[in-house]
Amino acid sequence: MAAVAIQWALRGDDSGDGPIFRTAAAERRDVVQTVEANGRLRPREPILVVAPVAGRLAHINVRIREKVEQGHLLARLDARSLAFEVGRAEAGVAAAEGALAEAKAAAVEALQQRRRAERLAGRGQLSQADLQAAVSASQRAKAAVRVAAAKLSEAQATLRGAKFAQDQTDVVSPRDGVVLTVPKELGLAVSPAGPVLFTVSAPLSVLRLEAAVGEADIGQLAVGQPAEFEVQAYPGNIFKARVEAIGAVANSDRGVATYPVQLSAPNADGRLLPGMSAAVRFEVARAANVLAVRDSALRFVPVGAKEAPVRSRVFRVREGRVDSIAVTTGVTDGVWVEIKTSGDDDLQAGDALAEGYLSGAPREAPGLNLGG
Question: Does some domain include residue 27?
Fold first, then answer.
């Protein structure tokens, strides 16, 4: 690819009185149009791990960035408090069993009293009020047995739960992956409600790249589109990525709307880490081996030139002449622009094109052909 040629002392006529133009050469080159965005690397499919039961953290068995498999032991809770709960539950079962036995004995006695009352009432030796009282007492005794039996069932369930919790003191990995966060201290009070003890993500061989793309550019992106990005940790290194998803709802910050775009970023060597910021470039158009000029050459118009649509011509400086050449533009990367000439204009790679004045009065001068 030819280097940009800057002409530092070219005058518009042979007298030396014309202006001095700053020029750059037209080149034959590849022009790649990109969309740029800021992004951040994230782990894929992170899972937050909490304690399976309430307790205190006794041991931590892994470190950050350690690879684990599903079921790998991450930590262990202090089992002593859980043993106390089992003992308490066993005592509750014993008390409930005693209460049930007492209720059953009372029910047997109440039933006997009822039958005796019924015999006496049948012989006219007991009033109806006393009979009804005996019947009611028997019914209450039966109900008390049912209540005691229910309380025993509840106590037994509590015991089973305590024993289950006693067997759940191991905190294990829910998946194959990498440990991203670990607890900072032992003795921490934990429970299924929180706090989060570990974050385990998919392996870091592939990361998720989240980018924010402006609303003016989002229409140029598509799922599967390639992209590249750089991170501050490795200046000058280019990393590859591919678009996986494009968000449908914009995020607005101070009136600026951006759309979330999710990409996958291969990380076979493990250099990239979650949390790194990234400068992302999406390739949206490419023109290979085309005649191209600097954008500044399309924007420059010498004094005295006829009016014409913006960016529709360039001014070639050759042999003391400045000629206006009509062009149509194509793909641009912001610096270089693909161009095509029309008619008999013969613009070639290497031709010097005016970009501005270096010195001299910006005026029409002999030898300048500034026609449209």
Answer: yes
Query: Is residue 275 predicted with pLDDT exceeding 90?
Result: yes
Measured on CA atoms in the order 126, 129, 135, 137, is the torsion positive or negative? negative
Contact between 10 and 21 under an 8 Å Cβ cutoff? The reply is yes
Domain range spanning residue 182? 47-78+170-201
In a domain, 12, yes or no: no
Number of domains present in the structure of the chain = 4
Q: How crowded is residue 225: how many other Cβ atoms within 10 Å of its Cβ?
A: 18
Task: Please tell me the distance from the alpha carbon of residue 18 to that of residue 307, in angstroms, as a whole number.
Answer: 21
d(CA 30, CA 25) in angstroms, rounded, equals 15
62 shares its domain with 113:
no
Whether residue 76 contacts residue 61, with contact meaning beta carbons closer than 8 Å, is answered with yes
Residue 1 domain-assigned (yes or no): no
pLDDT at 154 over 50: yes
CATH code where residue 326 lies: 2.40.420
Residue 307, classed as helix, strand or coil, is coil
Nearest to 96 by CA among 132, 143, 145, 139: 145
- Report which of 200, 253, 181, 167 is spatially closest to residue 69, judged by C-alpha positions: 200
Which has the closest alpha carbon to 49: 190, 208, 204, 165? 190
Q: What is the C-alpha to C-alpha distance for residues 287 and 347, in angstroms, rounded to an integer? A: 18
Taking the C-alpha atoms of residue 13 and residue 110, their distance in angstroms, rounded to an integer, is: 131
Is residue 253 in a domain?
yes
Does the pTM surpass 0.90? The reply is no
- What pLDDT is recorded for position 84? 82
H helical segments located in the chain: 80-122, 128-166, 295-299
189 and 214 assigned to the same domain: no
For the cut 80, the answer to whether the pLDDT of residue 58 exceeds it is yes
Instruction: Judge if 355 and 295 occupy the same domain.
Output: yes
Q: Residue 78: pLDDT band by 50, 70, 90 thresholds?
A: confident
Does the pLDDT at position 135 exceed 80?
A: yes
**357 and 303 share a domain?**
yes
Look at the alpha carbons of 123, 124, 128, 129 in this order and tell me if their dihedral is positive or negative: negative
- The residue from 287, 302, 335 where one domain ends is 287
